[in-house]
Amino acid sequence: MHPLDNIIWQALTTRHSQFAERHGNAARFTPEVTLFAGFDGDPEEGYASLSKLVGPGETVRLFLESPYEDRQGWTHVGGAGVVEMVWEMESGRPASRPDSKANTLNATDHKEAEIVQLGAPDSNEMMELTALTKPGPFEKRTHELGTYLGIRREGKLIAMSGERMKVPGYTEVSAVCTHPEHTGHGYARFLMGKVMQGIFERGEKPFLHVKDDNMRAIQLYERLGFRRRSLVHLVVLRKS
To answer: What are the sequence ranges of the domains in the chain?
Structure first.
């Protein structure tokens, strides 16, 4: 199995095992970290095992290879098609890493912007920013999954990016977002470049997930050297 196949299960059983709650052939992240869950092998056994981990009224998010089919004991809350993209080689040469614009801020922005590493004290602000901009789900302790960087102006967190799921040889770039009042300065792309630089320095490849209808983002990521690898089906389920 490729490390990026069944990515949530792979993360929970390898580099993120410290955040895993497991039963049978299912596992989920500690809910305060993220609501993602996964299972390996037979789906019937997987859902049965998952039901032992999730209490009534609790919600989980799964990545499935095929569209979700209704199952007793679960309520379908929502979902979307999600493209998994990986930074890849192009024409036998490494695709361009984030260019100079992604690794520098112009003089005006640099004076006014403070680049910071984010952690527990910033959790509420990170949740507020991601709730506003909706780059993907973000919980109280999601920041514990990897390095998260932010930009502050006048003390306010206005942009961020970081690392989410990790499997051997790969790290996911996630939560790439900018406050609507501060777009147009290249902040998110700058931070994404910084996060990717750290991943490259560890000898790993970046990957990411993006909704399949977000063509603007997909085209941007392709310009940065990412290539589409697969389509997965995000499903949000509530335990009945």
So the answer is: 7-82, 85-229
- Residue-wise pLDDT for 117-170, tens only, equals 999 999 999 999 999 999 999 999 999 999 999 999 999 999 999 999 999 999
| Confidence band, pLDDT 50/70/90 cuts, at residue 94 | very low
Render pLDDT for 6-32 as a digit per residue (tens, 0 to 9).
Answer: 999 999 999 999 999 999 999 999 999
Residue 37 to residue 114: CA distance in whole angstroms: 35
85-229 CATH fold: Aminopeptidase (3.40.630)
Query: C-alpha angle 189/211/72, rounded to 5°?
Result: 145
